[in-house]
């Protein structure tokens, strides 16, 4: 179960520290769904005197976020969880007894005494200003996710500071609301989706409330919006990521085979010395609140994806299971003569007289058609000739007007495909035990893999440090994933899950008929289940990891989200 907690720090809260009591939530929702923790008393947390630094710590941050969730109909889709006061024993898990006793004395203090008491405490923090969505994604791809998956947590707690959102007077960052949807989706791949998001910072109420709603939408399983900004990390962020990896190489298996040296003089320091630059951002209009709110509302209307009435379509007739019963089965539809001429050529024409093959391809084309029309979000099919099926699916999607398609080929097989350097198709091939060909173009990439695709450090490195950055930068409208032989279920499930964050979830998975054991797990992921937590972590193979890192370094010349090596 995921949860989103709308609350602020409980310092000087008149009714005391609050804690969720999930035991009283609806029993039928436990284990699956999204809980929300909110109490009107939380809005009584406010500063009782003027302070220039804390002037934006106002109850409206909480109440307006709550109202916005109601506005979008998100609140009613969550499971309300009551709160209770925390016990002293629970508070002492994170605070000293001296601090607790000191705070208790504030109950009888007046405002002047409270101000004097608070002057004994201070908070200092430092951060890099101006970070955008691309900078956060790059940090996730190359640091947070590889380390988090190696750590393999049982629970993920997110201190959700939305002061990194655009327009925030404290954070001075530039992340758009949809950034939080993507980060949340990626974190849901961990710990069987057990994710607790606790509201922390965020002081521009327009960007705060929309960002909160984006997070909750994702927890509820809605399509993740497309990113509308350029995905190119800044040099300063790349240098920081680089230095973090250098420091942590000694602790994490997945990082230790990357040959890097620290950046001793960051570009920001050089800029100050050479140009006298300062850390500043353009100041908004003198009274920007109303215009910013209108701008944000118009932006959200433009990017919010339409939710198809059907989640998952299946083109499978030979397998029966409870999971498949949740999918929509499509009626048999053979290819027309025109479609045969368009989709089949060369050796593929041999199936012209094979009615079973034509029916299989017809069902696949029907799924793609319904996905494009937004009648279905995603779909999957079993095929006896997955190479033929993937070529036909790719041709049909391009013929239907899609401009950017991502094709990911996993398993021990080959898909002959003449790559066009027009940027319409990005082909990523994750081979099995056979020898792979070298990369032949920017848009056809064969990963250097010398073993079957199992859930190991090799796979996690390839997924987070190469495949995801390439997929995000390609910005596909549609994703095709082929699952051939010699694939391990946990690895394929994780791949399919993270890819649902792209293209508004519009994806098609083609499964080799020799791998029926993968049908239920993949169908579950497409229906909204999270990828299973693999245990234990299997260390990476030095040879594979070194080979993949060399390939990433070669590719970063053409792909900006791969660029964090600055030596």
Describe what this molecule looks like in 3D.
The protein is an alpha/beta fold. It has helices spanning 60-71, 88-91, 97-104, 111-118, 133-151, 177-187, 205-220, 235-248, 267-275, 289-303, 337-343, 355-372, 386-399, 457-474, 489-499, 519-527, 542-555; strands at residues 2-5, 18-20, 34-37, 79-81, 83-85, 156-160, 195-199, 310-315, 328-329, 376-383, 405-410, 425-430, 444-447, 478-483, 507-512. The protein has an eight-stranded parallel beta sheet, with helices on both faces. Strands 4-3-1-7-6 form a five-stranded parallel beta sheet, with helices on one face. β6 (156-160), α6 and β7 form a beta-alpha-beta unit. α5 (133-151) runs parallel beside α6 (177-187).
């Amino acid at each position: 179960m995921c949860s989103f907690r709308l609350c602020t720090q409980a310092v000087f809260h008149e009714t005391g520290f609050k804690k969720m009591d999930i035991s009283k939530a609806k029993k039928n929702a436990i284990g699956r769904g999204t809980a929300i923790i909110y109490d009107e008393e939380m809005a009584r947390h406010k500063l009782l005197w003027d302070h220039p630094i804390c002037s934006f710590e106002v109850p409206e941050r909480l109440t307006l976020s709550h109202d916005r969730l109601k506005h979008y109909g998100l609140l009613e889709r969550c499971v309300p969880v009551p709160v209770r006061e925390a016990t002293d024993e629970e508070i002492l898990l994170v605070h000293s007894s001296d601090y607790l006793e000191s705070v208790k004395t504030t109950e009888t203090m007046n405002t002047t005494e409270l101000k004097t008491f608070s002057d004994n405490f201070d908070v200092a923090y430092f951060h890099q200003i101006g970070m955008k969505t691309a900078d956060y994604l790059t940090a996730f791809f190359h640091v947070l996710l590889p380390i988090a998956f190696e750590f393999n947590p049982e629970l993920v707690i997110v201190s959700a500071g939305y002061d990194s959102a655009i327009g925030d007077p404290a954070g001075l960052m530039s992340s758009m609301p949809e950034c939080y949807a993507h980060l949340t989706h990626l974190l849901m791949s961990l710990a069987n989706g057990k994710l607790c998001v606790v509201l922390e910072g965020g002081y521009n109420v327009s960007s705060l409330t929309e960002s909160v709603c984006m997070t909750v939408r994702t927890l509820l399983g809605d399509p993740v919006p497309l990113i509308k900004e350029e995905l190119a990390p800044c040099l300063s962020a790349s240098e920081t990521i680089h230095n973090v990896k250098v420091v942590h190489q000694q602790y994490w298996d997945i990082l230790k085979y990357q040959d890097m040296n620290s950046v001793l003089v960051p570009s920001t320091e050089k800029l100050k010395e050479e140009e006298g630059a300062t850390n500043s951002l353009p100041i908004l209009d003198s009274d920007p609140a109303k215009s910013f709110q209108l701008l944000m509302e118009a932006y959200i209307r433009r990017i919010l994806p339409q939710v198809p009435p059907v989640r998952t379509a299946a083109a499978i007739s030979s397998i029966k299971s409870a999971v498949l019963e949740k999918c929509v089965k499509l009626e048999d539809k053979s290819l027309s003569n025109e479609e045969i001429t368009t989709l089949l050529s060369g050796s593929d024409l041999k199936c012209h007289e094979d009615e079973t093959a034509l029916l299989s391809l017809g069902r696949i084309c029907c799924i793609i058609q319904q996905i494009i029309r937004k009648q279905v979000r995603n779909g999957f099919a079993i095929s006896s000739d997955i190479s033929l099926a993937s070529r036909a699916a790719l041709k049909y999607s391009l013929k239907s007007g899609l401009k950017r398609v991502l094709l990911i080929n996993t398993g021990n097989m080959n898909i002959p495909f003449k790559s066009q350097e027009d940027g319409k198709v990005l082909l990523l091939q994750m081979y099995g035990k056979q020898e792979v060909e070298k990369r032949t173009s920017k848009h056809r990439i064969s990963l250097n893999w010398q073993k079957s695709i199992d859930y190991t450090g090799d796979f996690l490195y390839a997924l987070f440090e190469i495949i995801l950055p390439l997929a995000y930068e390609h910005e596909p409208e549609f994703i095709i994933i082929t699952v051939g032989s010699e694939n391990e279920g946990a690895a394929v499930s994780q791949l399919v899950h993270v890819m649902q964050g792209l293209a508004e979830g519009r994806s098609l998975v083609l499964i080799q008929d020799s791998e029926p054991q993968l049908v239920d797990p993949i169908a579950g992921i497409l229906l909204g289940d999270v990828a299973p937590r693999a245990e234990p972590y299997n260390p990476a193979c030095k040879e594979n990891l070194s080979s993949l890192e060399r390939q990433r370094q070669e590719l970063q010349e053409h792909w900006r989200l791969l660029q964090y090596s600055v030596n």
